[in-house]
Design goal:
Elements (H helix, E strand, L loop, with lengths): L1 E2 L8 E12 L4 E12 L2 E11 L4 E3 L8 E9 L4 E3 L1
Parallel strand pairs: 1-6
Antiparallel strand pairs: 2-3, 3-7, 4-5, 4-6
């Protein structure tokens, strides 16, 4: 069960991927570089409660074995980041 959050900004991700391949008579080489910029990062945090599908209700602990789903809440990330 995933709980949305209408107050979040849209997550934005820009990616750059460059590749080069060389094939010679005796050797083949390939080089790939990538970079990723992300802002307004959104992640999901698992909450302590569960959602009971049979009862249609949230519970602190599952009262019917096999009927419950973990509850995830969408939250804003702490910062903008880049990955290389």
């Amino acid at each position: 069960m995933s709980l949305g959050n209408a107050g979040l900004n849209k997550e934005l991700s820009n990616n750059l991927d460059l590749g080069y391949q060389f094939t010679g008579e005796k050797i083949t080489a390939e080089l790939n570089l990538f970079h990723n910029w992300t802002s307004d990062y959104i992640y999901q945090q698992r909450l302590a409660s569960v959602f009971n599908e049979q009862l249609g209700a949230f519970e602190a602990a599952c009262s019917i074995a096999g009927a419950c789903l973990p509850v995830l809440e969408s939250r804003p990330g702490c910062c903008d980041f880049q990955r290389v």
